[in-house]
Amino acid sequence: MSTEQARPPLPPFTLESAKEKVQKAEDAWNSCDPDRVALAYTEDSVWRNRADFFSGRPMIREFLKRKWAKELDYRLKKELWAFTGNRISVRFEYEWHDDAGFWFRSHGNEQWQFDELGLMQRREASINDVPIKEVDRKFHWSRPVAV
User: Fold this and answer.
1) Taking CA 106 as the corner, what is the angle to CA 24 and CA 78, rounded to the nearest 5 degrees?
2) Are strands 41-49 and 120-132 parallel, antiparallel or unpaired?
3) Sheet with 87-97, edge to edge strand ranges
4) Full-prediction pTM beyond 0.90?
5) 15-136, what's its fold?
6) Opening angle at CA 47, ends 74 and 105, nearest 5
7) 110: buried, middle or exposed (CB in 10 Å: 19+, 13-18, 0-12)?
8) How many whole angstroms separate alpha carbon 109 and alpha carbon 13?
9) Cα–Cα dist 15/109, whole Å
10) Which InterPro entries did the record assign (predicted)?
11) Residue-level pLDDT at 71
12) Distance between CA 132 and CA 13 in Å, rounded?
């Protein structure tokens, strides 16, 4: 028996629960907190992100740390594309800039597969980056400053 905490909503998904799962993922990823985000995945979760293939929560955490060290002022929007049973497909866009100040909009899609506790077992992501000018950004957002 797993000692993992359930991450509702749980499969099988309805339209409402699939939308909720997508929104929770968007909120978590926008936190840019690798520890928080990694908890949504099974200990042995299998990932394909662009041309990177890896598995396991420690590898996910390390990947996310590298990602957000490179992709500064990251802001993501996800949209439910399709769902069935324990699977969800999303399209997304996110914007970020590198340490030289060049802005990008990244477009992609993801396929997710969940276990019975609502943890993601598998994530397949295809992503393309497009250089943009800062003035052409869609997603303006600033992180709250901790006091």
Assistant:
1) 20
2) parallel
3) 52-55, 41-49, 120-132, 103-114, 87-97, 72-84
4) yes
5) Nuclear Transport Factor 2; Chain: A, (3.10.450)
6) 25
7) buried
8) 19
9) 18
10) DUF1348, NTF2-like_dom_sf
11) 98
12) 36
pLDDT score recorded for residue 135:
94
Residue ranges per domain, the chain? 15-136
Confidence check: pLDDT of 99 > 70: yes
pLDDT band at 46 (very low <50, low <70, confident <90, very high): very high
Residue with tokens 């955490």: 61
Residue matched to tokens 């000018």? 133
Distance, CA of 43 to CA of 26 (rounded, Å) = 21
Half-sphere exposure of 101 (CA within 13 A, CB side): 2
Tokens of 137: 């950004």
Across 76-103, average pLDDT: 98
Residues 6+ apart with CB under 8 A from 54: 47, 60, 63
